[in-house]
Amino acid sequence: MYREKIKELEEWKETADRKPLIIKGARQVGKTWIMKEFGKNNYKNVAYINFDGNDRMARLFEDDFNIDRIIQGLKLESNIDIDAKNTLIIFDEVQEVPKALTSLKYFCENANQYHIIAAGSLLGVALHEGTSFPVGKVDFMHLYPLNFQEFLLAIRRGKVSRNSRGK
Predict the structure, then answer these.
(1) Rounded to an integer, what is the distance from CA 42 to the centroid of its chain?
(2) Would you state the torsion angle of the CA atoms of residues 78, 79, 84, 89, taken in this order, to the nearest 10 degrees?
(3) Domain spanning 5-166: which superfamily?
């Protein structure tokens, strides 16, 4: 599948003063897919963390925002050796662990060598009392459903693969 937003992600990756990126969008528009696809095609490793119902990750972000400790916990959770230059760290459904969202501020200020993309549905309304949002310390990308051109390309590719299977 082709998504025009991949180009925007590639530009983000190459930005010298890159900040953690938050992908905002409604449910089922492809946030998880685009993060994983971008990671697969642009990094040696992808450390994918899903925060939905993940008590281990809630505990990891409970105490403090010590980046070295957090990275060690993310390595254990994802079973990926996180190398700052060659690993994309994905925080999926980050609204489920609000302190993980807050941690993006500390990644920006103290460890901007890490490439981090976070996503979640309803991020604008999911903040919990006592949790701060990392204003000015993150970049945003809005993801919408496929546009018409992307839709036509997806249909065309689907027909080609279906026809080739029959022959």
Answers:
(1) 13
(2) -20
(3) P-loop containing nucleotide triphosphate hydrolases (3.40.50.300)
Per-residue pLDDT of the chain (167 residues; tens, 9 = 90+): 889 999 999 999 999 899 999 999 988 899 999 999 999 999 999 999 999 999 999 999 998 999 999 999 999 999 999 999 999 999 999 989 989 999 999 999 999 999 999 998 765 544 555 555 666 789 999 999 888 988 898 888 775 444 334 43
Sequence ranges of the domains in the chain: 5-166
Tokens of 76: 């254990």
Name the pTM for this structure: 0.85
Q: What does each C-alpha distance from 26 to 32, 119, 122, 124, 144 come to in angstroms?
A: 12, 10, 7, 11, 7
